[in-house]
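Possible race condition, two jobs.
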Amino acid sequence: MILYDNFQVNSKGHLTIGGCDAVGLAEQYDTPLYVVDENQVRKNCRAYKNAVKKYFGENGGEVAFASKALSFKGIYRIIADEGLWTDIVSVGEMETVKAAGFPLEKTYFHGNNKTDYDIETGLKNNIGVFVVDNLEEIDALNRLCEKYGRTQKVLLRVAPGIDAHTHAKITTAKIDSKFGIAIGTGQAIEAVGYILKQKNLEFIGIHCHIGSQILEIQPFLDADIMITFALDIKNKYGYEISTVNFGGGFGIKYLPEQEEINIDFGIKTIAEYINKKCDDLKMKVPKIIFEPGRSIVANAGATLYTVGSNKKITGYKNYISVDGSMADNPRYALYGAPYTVVAANRMNDPCEITATIAGRCCEEGDFIQENVKLPDLKRGDILAVLITGAYNYSMASNYNRLPRPAMVFVKDGEGRIAVKRETYEDLMRNEI
């Protein structure tokens, strides 16, 4: 059940995370509790950065952390230390980046519906690159650049029409996606021409994101349509772009039986494919950008809960209820996301029952996971859901007026608060 090296079992039979006893963390910081292993985050950052440098050359590529996976001040300080860029999709993420002291000139601003306020705020904060999504945004950005007397670097987000072989709700490159402009309909090439006519925009390249939690390499190779499209741009407009952004999407292992893409192997395979494609087309290899999110932070995280009850419905099923819910992890309720669940204080005990892990929200579908093999737990036991570093804290809510959990950074056996637990006063802070 130990999927990654940062999760181990100590002599007490307790789960450890980044060298910290999970039971001790639960006692010290209370539950529900998000735990993030700082060393694992740094290890993942370096795996990407080193692979891109090795296979694309010293200045042939960049890595940007996808903020939507996990956005809070502490993560941006790590990302800055490791020399990555970041991407954002809202002013809220922008302000968090700014408050952390992260350089905004190393930030991509995404989003399929940026308001004028979003654009103006980005311009005032000297965002490095806008990733434009549609013609109306191009008009608005050009107009506001005129107002502020500046030229803005832009990438055009395109929809390459690729099946990423992942869940429909996290597939983002279909021709009819809400994101970007479709290559296959001819609209993307026309949008390029439209950008080139704008006097306040500097068109540097194209962007796509084919999906999330992709566990095989082929969909990324299929994205070589981006290279062909770059050549189409040159042939039609005589304009050679400098940058192709392939987005993120490398999946990670949530369950023991799953396979995942090794970061070094994945980047190497993509680089060889792109380099050959460019050679065949007799074109210069553009600067290649990757935007990993989940594969930077997911396996660094775990969430700890305290068991409240073990309800056995004779002849039907068992429910183990915890003090967390879909409010702190909505991913199973949203699209059946799988997780590995363990008894953190009873790691060496035999798994005697099959249970549904139920949350405390007033929703029949408020489950963390179903059909989990566990010891016959009792009130007060500590449950750990592993690989929760991505899309748990960032998607958390206050449904049923539940305060969001605290987050603790662990490193080399020591823990420290990274995000304080919300209070009931926090819930009502803006109410009159």
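Job #2 (started ~2 s after job #1):
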Amino acid sequence: MKSRLLIMMIAAVTLLSCQSSKDNALAYFKELSEQTNGTLPNPQGEYQLRVQPDDELVITVSSVVPEATAAYNLPMENPATRSNLRTTTQPRTQTYIVDNQGYIMLPVLGRMMVKGKTTAEIANEITTQVAQNVKDPYVRVDIVNFGIDVMGEVRSPQRVHTTRQQFSVLDALTQCGDLTEFGKRDRVYVIRTEDGKRTFHRLDLNSSDVFNSPFFYLQQNDVVYVEPNEIRIANSKYNQNNAFKLSVISTIVSSVSVIASLVIALTR
């Protein structure tokens, strides 16, 4: 009877180990594990980063004759951006801050609506206006305050800054050292604020369908949150309970010590 129970226990352990090896909780895109190669889906629609209020833009206007476009640029100053107001840097072009209504004020050209436009659209609009007085102008527009907050079960929660126009949720997680072993790969949330309304979307990194999501590429000031798994939650509760117990014991010991000191003092 004992030998049969032993054999059954060994078989159960073997089955569990096989199951755990097949079901890797730390893997991404699990349906791809049995494929050698293939084609991944493209994100839905054409991704375009659009300017929002409080964005910080660098706009440079140039041409073959630099003097012809000098009046269309902000003067060189130090500091140049809001992020380094107290940092000594080499003089460079100032930035434009998009106001709450979505406008910026350009030299010579005046007030321009930029909210909801891509950097390419803004550059084309400025180019068209400058071309009325300058031959073959070249305009470049860049967003310099593109930041994403990454929190939850990642190895290094932080605010991630980038100068890239296309920055995905995978890029953000990579910048933070990837998910921890306690992060739920099927519960990665992207929280987004647009036109004063806050929305969220859950991404499943176990599936390659994540590439189809309109939230796969991030926008300015998005928040990426990775939900902890049950083990992390249980550990947290255990640690909290232990901390509470230690606090109670410490309080009792301190109280007993005080009482004992009083008794000794009174009985002398």
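Residues 17-22 have pLDDT under 50 and may be disordered.
Logs attached separately.
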